């Protein structure tokens, strides 16, 4: 993309309404525009990152064997009356009537709808296990929407639902989700720590939240510092292998890590003092096992191998896809702007032309652009007639991890400059070498 032809409405001034750095940077980098309290339009740069995050979620769900579907945003209240949640959900549920006076609602989550699909089409244990998921807009009429996309009223969420014959099978599904979530967040350059949590209105016994440590997080968290040394990395895992999934769960959840809702001071004090940490965290996901709560209420049963009708065991599993943009920025920025991890960056690298209109510089930039594009990479070429300082400031603000700077002086010596946004380190090298380096960084991503 050439910047002169793109739509990147960056702001020079700090927007007064933004209280935290991610909100401020998303507005300044022209990623989002508020449409109403807690409701945003996604501008090209923000939309691109949202899609990247969404794609990683889809790829990791596919790897775990989960099946994508799409359910509607507007739902009838009838199913929610069956489960008893229409009354119980409270004011966070946005309710409305259609022209016939029927009660409708904007989906805050979709346990009822997916259970209805299940009971209509699945009747036998032979069709299990089954995990269906969607990535869809949700609405919760939060009393205090704030921090931009971190606590919106409308937000984009992955919600997945497992259906299993037995509790043991459903607990495997729970473990499988935990493993796949670890992989998902790491691919986005994030460390998200599973912490024992409270079940809230979804209800259930087993639940973990995934928290990204950040000063601006809304949850207070308590943990054993050893947990931050754990990495899932690129280990291969067979998601059908119960023992392997269980082992990962144990590895990542056996050390003390809890939010304030479940914090237990006595247990915490068993952690050696020098490893005890109190911090703040952003919840980027949650997994639940809730047994037969919905299948009992809504009659979702299957026949087992002796011909008995039994309720299915279920769980639900969410990832805050739109919140993740804020969480990633909170975890990765400096005073100049965002620093995107390679896994989610909107463009793979920037090309800055220091002397627009200079034949040689223009030609070299175009050649770089063409070579990178031919390799399947997506560069952003700042071809505007702007001062070098302004171009650098824009690149730093929008946070592309790599920048290639092209100027007449370097070209005389046959070199361009490759700069890492994260370390600020630059290296001079011939243009073909810069292309190779960038391609190598993104190989396999
Ligand atoms: P919270 O405690 O932050 O209100 P929750 O526990 O009610 O969230 P879940 O039902 O677990 O949320 O939803 C799954 C994920 O969706 C959360 O882990 C979070 O990342 C995201 N999410 C929830 N509410 C919002 C919101 N208002 N804005 C943006 N993302 C949200
Ligand atoms: Mg939650």
Describe the structure.
With 445 residues, the protein is α+β, with helices and mostly antiparallel strands. The chain has two domains: 3-338, BirA Bifunctional Protein, domain 2; 349-442, Anticodon-binding domain (Rossmann fold), CATH 3.40.50.800. The protein has 14 helices and 23 strands. It has helices at 21-28, 44-63, 77-83, 85-88, 111-121, 167-187, 242-253, 265-268, 293-298, 321-331, 359-374, 388-398, 408-412, 431-442, and strands at residues 32-36, 39-42, 67-68, 74-76, 95-97, 103-106, 130-139, 154-164, 192-196, 206-213, 219-224, 257-259, 276-291, 301-303, 309-311, 313-319, 333-334, 337-338, 349-353, 379-382, 402-406, 416-420, 426-429. A hairpin with a 5-residue loop joins strand 22 and strand 23. 42% of the residues are buried. The structure holds adenosine-5'-triphosphate and magnesium ion.
Topology:
Blueprint: H1 21-28, E1 32-36, E2 39-42, H2 44-63, E3 67-68, E4 74-76, H3 77-83, H4 85-88, E5 95-97, E6 103-106, H5 111-121, E7 130-139, E8 154-164, H6 167-187, E9 192-196, E10 206-213, E11 219-224, H7 242-253, E12 257-259, H8 265-268, E13 276-291, H9 293-298, E14 301-303, E15 309-311, E16 313-319, H10 321-331, E17 333-334, E18 337-338, E19 349-353, H11 359-374, E20 379-382, H12 388-398, E21 402-406, H13 408-412, E22 416-420, E23 426-429, H14 431-442
Parallel strand pairs: 3-7, 19-20, 19-21
Antiparallel strand pairs: 1-2, 4-6, 5-6, 7-8, 8-16, 9-10, 10-13, 11-12, 11-13, 13-16, 14-15, 17-18, 21-22, 22-23
Helix pairs in contact: 1-10, 2-6, 2-10, 6-7, 11-14
Bound molecules: adenosine-5'-triphosphate (ATP) and magnesium ion.
Adenosine-5'-triphosphate binds at residues 109, 140, 142, 151-152, 155, 157, 200, 283-286, 318, 320, 322-323.
């Amino acid at each position: 993309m050439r910047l002169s032809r793109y739509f990147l409405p960056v702001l020079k001034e700090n927007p007064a309404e933004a209280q935290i750095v991610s909100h401020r940077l998303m507005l300044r980098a022209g990623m989002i525009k508020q449409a109403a309290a807690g409701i945003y339009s996604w501008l090209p740069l923000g939309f691109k990152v949202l899609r990247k995050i969404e794609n990683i979620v889809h790829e990791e769900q596919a790897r775990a064997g989960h099946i994508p579907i799409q359910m509607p945003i507007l739902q009838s209240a009838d199913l929610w009356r069956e489960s008893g949640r229409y009354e119980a959900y409270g004011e966070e549920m946005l309710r409305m009537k259609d022209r016939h006076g029927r009660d409708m609602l904007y989906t805050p989550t979709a346990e009822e709808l997916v259970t209805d699909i299940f009971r209509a089409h699945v009747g036998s244990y032979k069709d299990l296990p089954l995990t269906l998921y969607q990535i869809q807009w949700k609405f919760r009429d939060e009393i205090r929407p704030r921090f931009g996309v971190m606590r919106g009223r409308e937000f984009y969420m992955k919600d997945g639902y497992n259906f299993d014959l037995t509790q043991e099978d459903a607990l495997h599904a729970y473990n499988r989700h935990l493993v796949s979530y670890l992989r998902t967040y790491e691919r986005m350059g994030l460390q998200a720590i599973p912490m024992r949590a409270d079940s809230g209105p979804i209800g259930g016994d087993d639940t973990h939240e995934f928290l990204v440590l950040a000063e601006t997080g809304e949850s207070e968290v308590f943990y054993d510092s050893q947990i931050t040394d754990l990495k899932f990395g690129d280990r291969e895992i067979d998601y059908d292998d119960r023992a392997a999934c269980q082992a990962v769960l144990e590895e990542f959840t056996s050390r003390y890590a809890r939010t304030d809702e479940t914090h237990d001071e006595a247990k915490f004090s068993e952690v050696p003092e020098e490893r005890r940490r109190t911090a703040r965290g952003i919840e980027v996901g949650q997994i639940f096992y809730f047994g037969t709560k919905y299948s009992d209420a809504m009659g979702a049963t299957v026949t087992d191998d002796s011909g008995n009708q039994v309720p299915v065991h279920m769980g639900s599993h969410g990832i805050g896809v739109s919140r993740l943009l804020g969480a990633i920025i909170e975890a990765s920025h400096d005073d100049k702007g965002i620093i995107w991890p390679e896994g989610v960056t909107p463009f793979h690298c920037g090309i800055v032309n220091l002397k627009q209109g200079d034949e040689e510089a223009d030609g070299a930039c175009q050649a770089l652009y063409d070579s990178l594009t031919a390799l399947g990479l997506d560069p952003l070429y700042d071809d505007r007639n702007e001062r070098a300082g302004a171009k650098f400031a824009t690149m730093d603000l929008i946070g592309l991890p790599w920048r290639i700077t092209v100027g007449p002086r370097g070209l005389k010596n046959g070199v361009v400059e490759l700069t890492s946004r994260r370390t600020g380190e630059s290296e001079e090298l011939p243009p073909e070498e810069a292309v190779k380096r960038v391609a190598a960084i993104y190989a396999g991503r």
